[in-house]
Design a protein that fits this description.
CATH class of one domain: Mainly Beta
Strand content: 25-35%
Helix content: 10-25%
Order of helices and strands: HHEEEEEEE
Shape: flat
CATH topology of one domain: Immunoglobulin-like
CATH architecture of one domain: Sandwich
Number of helices: 2
Largest sheet: 4 strands, antiparallel
């Protein structure tokens, strides 16, 4: 028979780990912007940087085109969408309600100037495509700088 030394704090360290994990999972979206994308109500977005333009694709299934707004203010691009809640039927027995209703919004800071008169947006099959042509001077150019000495 082996003797085992009793540790009164062994169970408390397991409890402490569980509490830490609970807080880490609950508040991760404040520390990690990528985690906010997976939160309920956020819509996924792809942003592609090409030599001539920025291409943005946002998944907005089930939205009416008239309820989607794309706004560019200075260098901040905002996509807003709203889905109205359907009226529930009397005496309807819903087994599950998972669709989200209300206002949804994502904003992105543009780190380069764009041609504001050439901006385009197209919505088809639940995907919003935004094309932001870059200003000519925003494209990468090679410039030789003379070194004085």
């Amino acid at each position: 028979m082996a003797l085992v030394k009793w540790d009164p704090f062994r169970d408390l360290s397991g409890l402490q780990s569980s509490i830490n994990r609970l807080f880490d999972d609950s508040f991760r979206f404040w520390r990690e912007p990528e985690a906010a994308l997976t939160q309920e109500g956020a819509f996924p977005v792809d942003i592609k940087d090409t030599p001539g333009e920025l291409l943005i694709k946002a998944e907005l299934p089930g939205f009416n085109k008239d309820n989607i707004k794309v706004i560019l203010t200075d260098n901040l691009l905002t996509i807003r969408a709203e889905r109205q809640k359907e009226e529930k039927e009397e005496n309807a027995n819903y087994l599950r309600v998972e669709r989200s209703y209300g206002s949804f919004s994502r904003s992105f800071t543009l780190n380069m100037p764009v041609k504001q008169d050439k901006l385009r947006a197209h919505y088809h099959d639940g995907v919003l495509e935004i094309t932001l042509p870059k200003e000519e001077d925003a494209r990468k150019k090679e410039i030789n700088i003379n070194i004085e000495g």
